[in-house]
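ATP synthase subunit c, pasting as requested.
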Amino acid sequence: MTGNIAILGYGLSAIGPGIGVGLIFAAYINGVARQPEARGMLQPIAFLGMAITEALAIFGIALAFVFKG
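Structure tokens follow.
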């Protein structure tokens, strides 16, 4: 078996943001379904939360490449 444990670490670190984005948009859909008039207020919050959560995945892949070499 060849490779580096950093790549396995990235694979594991991608699970967290994947679950996080799913939970964010599940809460957004639930909130809009309950109060459709609040859509304008909830949408920017959902996209901000998604961006912050996806930043974790980007940090994970950056660190995987840093520690690979």
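Note for the archive: The mean pLDDT is 86.
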